[in-house]
Amino acid sequence: MNPELSDTALWSRLLNGEEDALDLIYKEHFQALYQYGMRMLHQEDEVKDCLHNLFVKLWENRRKLNPTTQIRYYLLAALRNTIINHRAKESKYEKIEANDNHLFDLNFTLESAYIRKEIMHEKAAQLAAAMNLLTPRQKEIIYLKYFEELDYSQIAEIMGLTTKGTYKLSARALEALREIMKVDKTLLVLLLLEFNKLHKWYF
Asked: What is the pLDDT of residue 107?
């Protein structure tokens, strides 16, 4: 995507019916949406179907959409709702509520480049193992906060929580990690930020 083109301007072009704007949005955000979707459905074909439906509806309903300054946040929230609706319609799934503990899955692994950093390796390995012990909801909020870098009000809307509830869930997730790793909160946050830069996701 053209770095000089803001989310506000690109979204405005979409709302005005410019097809190239939809194409730019798709190319810029597909990978992040795909990764997030795979953690909810775990089936590539179904995730791609949901993404297809999301972008079709985005185009068909463009005249009804509100302006946004953060396209990634809007799309993550929309995809989550699309997947919840998809799962509710599929006979192999029971109806999923927004607070369902089986909604989100994420396995953390380490990139080889990160492992080569000997000083950080031990703590990084502990962090990866600790995150795999979190509940699905705790994993999801860590993912959205520290990997997608959304703010709490955005996360609250995506996860169907109040902003206060989002703060509490985040605090519980961080406290769980801190207790497992036996480190202070400041070091934990620094580790998460570093992990974000060097982490590689595997399905």
From this structure: 58
In a domain, 1, yes or no: no
Look up the domain containing 62 and give its range: 7-89
Report the 3 state secondary structure along the chain: CCCCCCHHHHHHHHHCCCHHHHHHHHHHHHHHHHHHHHHHHCCHHHHHHHHHHHHHHHHHCHHHCCCCCCHHHHHHHHHHHHHHHHHHHCCCCCCCCCCCCCCCCCCCCCCHHHHCCHHHHHHHHHHHHHHCCCCHHHHHHHHHHHHCCCCHHHHHHHHCCCHHHHHHHHHHHHHHHHHHHCCCHHHHHHHHHHHHHHCCCCC
Q: Dig out the tokens for 99 from the structure.
A: 């607070």
pTM for this entry? 0.61
Domain annotation covers residue 96: no
Q: Do residues 128 and 192 both lie within one domain?
A: yes
Count of domains observed in the chain:
2
Percent of the chain with pLDDT over 70: 78
